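Collaborator request log, item 7. Partner lab (contact: R.S.) asked for a structural prediction of LysR substrate-binding domain-containing protein to inform their binding assays.
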Amino acid sequence: MLDVRRLRLLRELAHRGTIAAVARALAYTPSAVSQQLSTLEREAGTVLLERTGRQVTLTPAALTLVAHAEVVLERLEQAAADLAATREGPSGPLRIGAFPSAARTILPAALVALEEGHPQLEPHVHELDPAEVAAALRTGEVDVALVHTYDFVAALPEPGLDTIHLFDEPMFLAAPRTMEPLPDDDPLRRWREAPWIVAPTTTRCGTMTMRACEAAGFVPRVRHVIDDFPTALALVGVGSGVALIPQLGVADPAPEIMLVPLPMQRSTWAACRRGALTRAAITAFASAVRSAASNLQPPRP
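Returned to partner:
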């Protein structure tokens, strides 16, 4: 009989690539991970890993087993969701991952709604970059997490995860009131000669900014690379450049900053392990976030 815990280790190895990375993620020692995978090979009766020095490669048999492991783990999540449905309302701990702008603007009201509507639920919030969400969900660090997508940046499907759409928010170009744009029909191309403040291109926000500018017919002249909306707005406020900011990032803009609405948006989703989407605690959380988002006031244009 194949052991589910060892199947989980094999799946993590397929996603992370090295035994050391699996050990760090799951709080094992590398030798313990190797021993468990060797035991799984004996259980499977076939070679799962090809070892070359410190490198390991999954064999075709291992990849087949990983695909089955995804199905098994999904069914276990569904079983947990079905058992939870037999209880009277959601209860117990709910570990929530959230990106900073949502944690600052959306989550406080959502947590109040959860406490009032489901007093037996115990939410625990972890601030997470969306790039870290998939790994945190698979290892069980969080049960549900907020992630976002931007126009111009397609979201790649993550094996073993489900998502549900929560809300959309408009994008704004933040510029100093002292900076004059060029005349143009395109609201983004007007700022083609301005210095730009962008997030790193390794982030979705940074990729979105570069692609949006390229679609408008220019390459932005990057002056600052900042992965934090409040810091970017502070630099805009002192005249250091312009930046693309979603609504949640400009809840209270300074008077010296003007916001230009753009025909673009950022979308926020709730992500969870596949099979857990019907879990009462997760549906309650999604409902609370949607309600909180619907009550947001648009920023001053």
